[in-house]
Amino acid sequence: MDDYNSINEQKRLEALYSYDILDTDTERDFDDLTALASAICDTPISLISFVDKDRQWFKSHHGLDARQTDRCHSFCSHAIQDPEHLMQVEDARKDVRFQDNPLVTGSPDIRFYAGMPLLDGDGYALGSLCVIDQKPKLLTKSQQKALQTVANQVIGKLLLRKNNRNLILANKNLSETNSKLKAAEEKLKEAIADLKESKDKIQNILDIVGEGIGITDSEGNIVYTNRRNQEIFQLDEKSMLGLSNVSSEWNNRRSDGSSMPHNEHPITVALATGNPVVDYILLVSDQNGNSKYLRMNAMPIKDANGTVNGAIGSFADITESYLWQQKLKESENSLQAAISSANLGTWQMNVQTKELTASTRMKELFGFYPDEPMSFPAAMGQIAESHRQLVNDIIESSISKDEPNEFEYPIVGYHDKKLRWVSATVQTYKNPGDNTISYLSGTIADITERKMDEQRRTDFVGMVSHELKNPLTAIKAYAHLVNRAAKNYNDNALEDKISKIDHQVNRMENLINGFLDVARIGEGKIKLEKSQFDMADLLKITEGECLNMITSHHLVFEHTTIAIVDADRNKVEQVLINFINNAVKYSPTDTVIYVKSFTKDGYVHITVKDQGMGIPGKDQGFIFDRFYRVESDAMKNKKGFGMGLYICKEIIERHNGQIGMESIEGIGSTFWFRLLLV
């Protein structure tokens, strides 16, 4: 039996077993049907036969004493092979399939056989309704149709029997479930009664405790509150018992004033984990709207089986002491900032009033005199117009999102008109005594020299790149002349070499253009020459060139099928080659470099994975910055300007793509980019 038939036979047997009919007692409903079939077809024998794995078993056996026979002798086993049609054998002695069958040569001396397959709702032939005679014959058309009708009745009764059995089983399960639910309900009632009894016993004791005490059920609903708890929240017992630990009336907040998620509340944690929570500080509001800092402990209540069915929370009002601690901490932080920011400008601004307080160093950087006031509008006015809106947007974002930011921008001194570049930080904080008042604070550092150094590097790169283009143009012209001569002399070998030289010259030209891109990027002049092309073709070409040029490492390419993008082919190739060259440069000889492309979510993804030195975690966030180079012993002999990855990032992002890397120091790195498919 081939695999397909084997699978179908297995499914057929599973369908048969699902009716739980085999080896069951005789049933009159089925016996009536075999008697009817025998009468209709004028045969002495009629059977309802189910074909098992190694046997055929008779649910009803009219005119025959046997309950089963071996499947290898079964006529019905042949009948179910064509489940849509009646199988008739006019004279089994003349049929090569059955003439040697012991059921033909011996009892019950079968001559005529007709079997109508019994098909269930899924089309599986479970067996057949068959009629048998000891003399040759054929059924008339009306007998065949009637036999089909009786077979349908057999299937109908089989389905009814199955459904009744399932219904009985479902009713049994439902009864068991109802019993369990009733038992659970009784246990819950007992637990609640026990909890109420415990509450009454400790009521008098807890009312004289100096801390607020609250008891909840397993859902966090308050079932008990002592007198001190009611005093803290300025709420009577009846009103409090209608609330839970996370009701909006408490206005639960973290100690920093941010909203507290429900699952972070100490009572919720104690109920969920079964563990106590100790000395948790939170901020709440009483019913008069007054904010209060509470130190809270939460303890789960467990029954004898260790099941958590409630929790106890205790509160201490620490508002006064907490505010004093915060003021002390604020003073300490200000002092530490002043010490550590020896040459940094510092500032603070009231978000509501825009009142700015600036240090002497900050005034100096903005070109103001030390004793001269500097307002927020005046400070914004000294920021170069090209960056003024950006700075304003960052400040507004810090206020609205309550997030710190770090950014760079140029300023022109108020009095000295001197151009300076500064690096600034900004963060928000609230007045501990009044959370409605917010402040911004930050630092200012002079980075003019670094910015000028970057500009000098950019100018140098641009100048050198221009100078390199002249001899490269001459080489390209000479190569063109030699190529023409090779064609004239039909020198195919020389022509092939010149073609490769020309390709490498083009690559060198692209590399020089990349250097020029550094200067253009800074000036916002980089241009993309887009066209539609297949990234799979680009990888195939790159694979051929790399396998010819790179012999120090093992390159493994894995291509996607077709990936059409609308992009600058030369610049995308420049990114890919840069990734591969870096992998060669920073990984040991004879290691494997994997280059892979695949499509996903409307993008083509390109990855280059090496087994090299990896990148330290402290450097990974800056690896795509201009002129950035990792400083380590392993990098001492690695040459470079720190521009390659910066150019790659600019190229991909100007295509509205994404670029990134993952790296583990000492194990290797994976650099990737993705572009939108057409």
Describe this structure in words.
The strands form five sheets. The protein has a six-stranded antiparallel sheet. It is flat. It has 678 residues and is an alpha+beta fold. The protein folds into five domains: 3-166, Beta-Lactamase (2-Layer Sandwich); 208-317, Beta-Lactamase; 323-446, Beta-Lactamase (2-Layer Sandwich); 451-523; 531-676, Heat Shock Protein 90 (2-Layer Sandwich), CATH 3.30.565. Helix 16 (569-585) runs antiparallel to helix 18. Strand 2 (55-62) and strand 3 (68-70) form a beta hairpin.
Blueprint of the fold:
Elements: H1 3-18, H2 28-41, E1 45-51, E2 55-62, E3 68-70, H3 76-79, E4 87-89, H4 102-105, E5 112-119, E6 125-133, H5 141-207, E7 212-217, E8 222-225, H6 227-233, H7 237-240, E9 253-254, H8 266-273, E10 277-285, E11 291-302, E12 308-317, H9 319-340, E13 345-350, E14 356-358, H10 360-365, H11 376-382, H12 385-401, E15 405-412, E16 419-431, E17 434-446, H13 448-488, H14 492-523, E18 531-534, H15 535-549, E19 554-558, E20 564-567, H16 569-585, E21 592-600, E22 603-609, H17 617-620, H18 644-654, E23 658-664, E24 668-676
Parallel strand pairs: 19-21
Antiparallel strand pairs: 1-2, 1-6, 2-3, 4-5, 5-6, 7-8, 7-12, 9-10, 10-11, 11-12, 13-14, 13-17, 15-16, 16-17, 18-20, 21-22, 22-24, 23-24
Helix pairs in contact: 2-5, 13-14, 14-18, 16-18
